[in-house]
Amino acid sequence: MPSSELSSEYEPLDEKPFSSEDHQILKSYESVVDGLAMLIGSHCEIVLHSLDDLKCSAVRIANGEHTGRKIGSPITDMALRMLHAMSHDDSSVSKAYFTRAKSGSLMKSLTIAIRNKDRRVIGLLCINMNLDVPFSQIMQTFLPPETNDVHSNVNFASSVDDLVAQTLEFSIEEINADRNVSNNAKNRQIVLNLYEKGIFDIKDSINQVADRLNISKHTVYLYIRQFKNGDFSGNER
After folding, report:
1. In DSSP terms, which residues pair with 179 in a beta bridge?
2. CA 231 – CA 70 distance, rounded (Å)
3. What pTM was computed for the model?
4. Which of 69, 179, 206, 229 could form a disulfide with 73 if both were Cys (CB 3.0 to 4.6 A apart)?
């Protein structure tokens, strides 16, 4: 086969230039790296690879001390192998696999392909858990701090209407149980409670709240304007 035909059939990953949109897509994953590291813990390395330049593909790393990598490190042979496998079956998530870091630490890993709108793989998100870290240290990551800062009232509603309704009922119960809130200030305080929880960012929630509290939606709007202006001491309507 002539070399020209071979080169057109097999194009290296980093031969085709990235568009500005490709770079923006990869940039948006940087916060995913940081967020996953915070959630899973320091025993887990998270690496974002850009396939724009395989010689320095690592563009974001959290907990890189587990493998000694840093921003600007090249792509690994294992990452290339996972990419090759995913490219052939059009998958975007590899099977979990086990490797050993240079230090000898046993790692359980997963590779996720990042694709652009044309389905071209432009990056890889690699998650590597160090299994040699003491189990007690790993478990400590998943336990609440001694301050008991636990948000126990997360509402896993099945629809946004249910979310508004359930959050509204909880706020009503919460305010009614507060003896420091006078009867003629309860509705306003309930609206404030919902405002602080972000409920009014949901479309049509104002109508739902107004109907349940038996007040006009204009009154709800008034309270919200007051809160936005920093007036938390206005009179009940």
Report:
1. none
2. 48
3. 0.66
4. 69
* Residues 26/48, Cβ–Cβ less than 8 Å: yes
The whole-angstrom separation of Cα 227 and Cα 189 is: 11
Distances (CA, A) of 33 to 2, 38, 41: 43, 9, 12
What tokens appear for 187 in the block? 């509705």
The beta-strand segments (E) located in the chain are 44-50, 58-62, 97-100, 106-115, 121-130
Neighbours of 209 (CB within 10 A): 25
Exposed (0-12), middle (13-18) or buried (19+): which is 116, by Cβ within 10 Å? middle
Measured CA to CA, the distance from residue 235 to residue 177 in angstroms comes to: 20
The pLDDT tens digits of the residues spanning 131-180 come to 998 888 878 887 776 655 554 555 556 688 888 888 899 999 999 999 89
The string of pLDDT tens digits covering residues 65-92 is 888 889 999 988 888 888 887 777 778 9
Residue 53 has which token pair?
Answer: 């330049």
Answer for the pair 206, 164: CB distance below 8 angstroms, yes or no. Answer: no
Total length of the chain: 237
- In the block, which residue shows the tokens 């975007």? 92
